[in-house]
Amino acid sequence: MTELSGFSADLMQEVPRLRAFGVSLSGSLSAADDLVQETLIKAWTHRTSFVPGTNLRAWLFTILRNTFRSQRRKLGRELGDDGHFAERLTTPAGQHGRLEMLEMRAALDKLPADQREALVLIGISGCSYEEAAVICGVAEGTVKSRVNRARRRLRVLLDVGDAGEIGPQGSDLAILSASLTDKPGG
After folding, report:
1. Are 147 and 122 in contact, with CB atoms under 8 Å apart?
2. Which one of 42, 52, 96, 103 has the lowest number of neighbouring Cβ atoms within 10 Å?
């Protein structure tokens, strides 16, 4: 008997135990069969890493357990769906946001360049006042003043009284949060 055929025979001898172990992990005969098949493929592919004379069963069980854990981790990152989750997915209408963004861009264009620059650095780029001051080559207090003036000017240009007036209105949110399967009057 050749070395490969001996290894193959030893593998086949462990299949019933591997299958039982696979069932104990997965709780399913078909999943256990898949695990055993994957284990045997991996064992055969990496047979040169097995040291003859060591515990083949332990080596195979380790491969099976690691394969099972890898599949579980992968399943944890995937979202199983029987259609019910997809039914409930909704996306708010983009019209409001798009129109507001166009208005915001137009209003930003009406700001003096130094105020727009300071506001973009602080409000959009996430720079600190100190970083913005270095970038603009002015004092930190000057940046704060420019940002304050830019924000006040934007409120006027956009006709915003308070922060609650920005974004979707309450009536829009009420419509958007209603279930798609809800029927009016029922």
Report:
1. yes
2. 52
